[in-house]
């Protein structure tokens, strides 16, 4: 990577870090990235509202290859002392999306200056943390006849500047599921005159271990209870409303769908038994992110060609990633670059993106762009 381009990318990362914005509110971030590309490249910019992409039109134009970076931040206070620390109270880039976008922008500089035999698309995406972004941006794939797409994430707990790869599922599918039940309140001394949802919700909870049993599922299936909210702290009132909130997760999306159906069915059955109204609510929905082996093999080839340390992952990450919306529509792969075995974890107060892995990301993308 050219020294000047790396310096510009690092400076951009620091500017993004100082002005973090939450998912679906990345107005300054998006415009700053656009301004950077307009000032430093001749790339075509396509503004799609909350997201945008840039295009390098090759004179050869063999095929259309895309690279994606996310740019939203997290609702976490910046507590470490940085010269470019967050200027937004309660919001900071504790997942490294500032670094992902700076890497993609640095890569754009290199392609713009040095060229490529393929048409290269640089996709800058909003709202990865909530799962909204890729589902909205997925139209980009068919509209531009994208034949392959790549992205990467920095990852703590692995050797610094190593590249991690896996075939098949890289991230589990997940979603937030809420089961609302409504009965009839009554005086606590006369529970028979009301309909309390507690017993029905308890039956749903009791059914969960059977649904997630490894013996009845092909891959890992999880159901994490995050909140049970029934009634109020009023000892004279028999509860009339309740909600059970869970995160459901699975290695394979079809098994997450089966878990959802099972939970809905038992909730409906218990609600009918007790005379309760029941409804369901879903949010933070993430698909299974599955890597195409051909695309993963290209990452392996680039690592061999450039001498990067390559780590073969033996299992998918349980945490979800919305990149799967793209790989449902075209070939692609999601990869990782290590922050270091003992580096602070993502989403922690102590975490800060490592500037020195920007060049690794850029060189990885450059190698993939040429294949």
Automatic annotation (TrEMBL):
It holds the Pfam family Peptidase_M20. The keyword Metal-binding applies. The keyword Metal-binding applies. The Mn(2+) ion enhances activity. Residues 170-274 form the Peptidase M20 dimerisation domain. Its cofactor is Mn(2+). Mn(2+) binds at residues 95, 97, 129, 153, 347. It comes from the Bacteria. NCBIfam families: amidohydrolases (TIGR01891). This is Amidohydrolase.
């Amino acid at each position: 990577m050219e020294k000047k381009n790396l310096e510009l990318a690092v400076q951009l990362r620091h500017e993004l870090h100082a002005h973090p914005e939450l998912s679906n509110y990345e107005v300054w971030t998006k415009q700053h990235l656009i301004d950077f590309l307009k000032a430093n490249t001749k790339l075509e910019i396509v503004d799609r509202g909350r997201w945008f992409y840039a295009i390098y039109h090759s004179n050869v134009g063999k095929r259309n290859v895309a690279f994606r970076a996310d740019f939203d931040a997290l609702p976490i206070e910046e507590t470490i002392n940085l010269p470019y620390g967050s200027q937004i109270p309660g919001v900071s880039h504790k997942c490294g999306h500032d670094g992902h976008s700076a890497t993609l922008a640095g890569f754009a500089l290199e392609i713009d200056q040095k060229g490529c035999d393929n048409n290269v698309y640089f996709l800058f995406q909003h709202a990865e943390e909530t799962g909204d972004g890729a589902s909205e941006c997925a139209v980009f794939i068919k509209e531009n006849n994208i034949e392959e797409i790549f992205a990467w994430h920095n990852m703590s707990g692995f050797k610094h500047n190593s590249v991690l790869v896996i075939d098949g599922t890289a991230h589990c599918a997940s979603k937030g599921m809420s089961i609302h039940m409504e009965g009839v309140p009554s005086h606590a001394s006369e529970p028979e005159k009301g309909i309390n949802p507690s017993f029905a919700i308890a039956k749903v909870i009791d059914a969960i271990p059977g649904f997630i049993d490894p013996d009845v599922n092909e891959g890992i299936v999880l159901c994490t209870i995050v909140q049970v909210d029934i009634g109020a702290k009023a000892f004279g009132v028999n509860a009339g409303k309740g909600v059970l909130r869970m995160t459901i997760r699975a290695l394979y999306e079809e098994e997450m769908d089966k878990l959802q159906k099972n939970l809905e069915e038992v909730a409906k059955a218990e609600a009918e038994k007790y005379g309760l109204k029941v409804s369901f609510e879903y949010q933070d929905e993430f698909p299974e992110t599955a890597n195409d082996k051909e695309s993963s093999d290209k990452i392996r080839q680039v690592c061999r060609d450039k001498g990067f340390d390559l780590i073969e992952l033996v299992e998918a990450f349980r945490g979800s990633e919305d990149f799967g919306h793209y790989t449902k529509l075209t070939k692609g792969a999601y990869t990782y670059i290590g922050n270091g075995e003992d580096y602070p974890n993502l989403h922690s107060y102590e975490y800060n993106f490592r500037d020195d892995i920007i060049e690794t990301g850029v060189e990885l993308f450059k190698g993939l762009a040429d294949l």
